[in-house]
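Backbone-to-sequence.
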C-alpha cells in the first residue's frame, strides 16, 4: 500500500486534482476511473460542499482510463439510463444547496438541470473501487478495495474537504473511519412509522456524515430523498 501524503492534504481543499490522479493511477493500476470534484471553481462557490461516496463506476467496455468528472459534466448525454442513479443524487443535493424540504423540490429536467441549475458541477463524487465494474457491484470487491486503499481514500476525502458526506458505498468501516478522522458523534434517525428505516449518521458543528444506501436502491424516491433532507435539516437546526 502506498502511504504517500501529498501537500494539499490535511483540511486544505484541492486546487487541482491532477496531482492526486497520479496517486490513484499508481494505487489502482489499469483500468482506472478518476473521480472527485466535478468542477472545482463551482464546488468552492457552493453554499454547502457535498461529497457522495459510491461503490464503483459501471464500466461495460474495456478501457485503460476514464474520467468520471467529464462524465458528470454532461451525464444525460453520456448515459441514457442516468436517472436510475442520478435522480436520487441530484434532487437531494439541490435540496441541501437551497435548504429545501422534500415537498418543495422542483421537477428534474430530462437533461439533468433543475431550474436551469446543473448541480452535478457543484459537488464531488468518488468511488471506493476505482477500477470500475459492471451493473451490479460485488460487496466483497468493494470491501477489499477499501481494505487495500483505505489511506488513499481517506486522503482524497480530506482533499475534497466536504461539509456533508453521503456514504453510499455500504462500507461501514469507511463510516467509522471518517467519524474518527473528523471527531464526529454517531447518532441514529428513526424514520418509522413513516418509512421502515433507521439511518446511522454522525456529525459535529462543521460536518455531517450520513451512512446510506446506493442511489439506485430498492426504495421509493420519496423515502430516499426525504430521509437525506430530514437528517440534513435536523443537523442544520441543532
Amino acid at each position: 500500500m502506498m502511504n504517500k501524503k501529498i501537500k494539499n492534504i490535511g483540511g486544505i481543499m484541492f486546487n487541482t486534482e491532477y496531482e492526486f490522479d497520479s496517486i490513484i493511477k499508481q494505487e489502482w493500476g489499469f483500468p482506472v476511473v478518476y473521480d472527485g470534484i466535478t468542477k472545482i471553481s463551482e464546488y468552492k462557490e457552493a453554499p454547502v460542499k457535498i461529497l457522495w461516496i459510491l461503490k464503483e463506476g459501471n464500466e461495460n467496455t474495456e478501457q485503460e482510463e476514464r474520467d468520471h468528472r467529464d462524465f458528470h459534466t454532461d451525464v444525460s448525454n453520456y448515459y441514457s439510463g442516468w436517472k436510475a442513479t442520478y435522480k436520487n443524487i441530484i434532487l437531494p443535493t439541490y435540496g441541501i444547496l437551497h435548504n429545501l424540504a422534500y415537498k418543495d423540490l422542483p421537477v428534474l429536467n430530462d437533461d439533468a438541470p433543475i431550474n436551469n441549475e446543473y448541480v452535478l458541477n457543484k459537488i464531488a463524487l468518488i468511488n471506493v473501487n476505482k477500477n470500475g465494474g459492471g451493473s451490479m457491484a460485488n460487496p466483497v470487491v468493494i470491501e477489499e478495495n477499501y481494505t487495500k486503499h483505505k489511506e488513499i481514500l481517506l486522503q482524497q476525502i480530506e482533499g475534497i474537504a466536504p461539509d456533508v458526506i453521503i456514504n453510499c458505498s455500504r462500507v461501514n468501516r469507511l463510516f467509522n473511519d471518517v467519524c474518527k478522522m473528523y471527531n464526529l458523534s454517531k447518532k441514529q434517525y428513526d424514520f418509522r412509522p413513516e418509512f421502515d428505516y433507521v439511518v446511522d449518521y454522525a456529525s459535529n458543528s462543521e460536518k455531517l456524515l450520513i451512512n446510506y444506501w446506493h442511489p439506485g436502491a430498492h426504495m421509493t424516491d420519496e423515502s430516499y430523498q426525504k430521509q437525506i433532507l430530514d437528517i440534513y435539516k435536523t443537523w442544520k437546526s441543532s
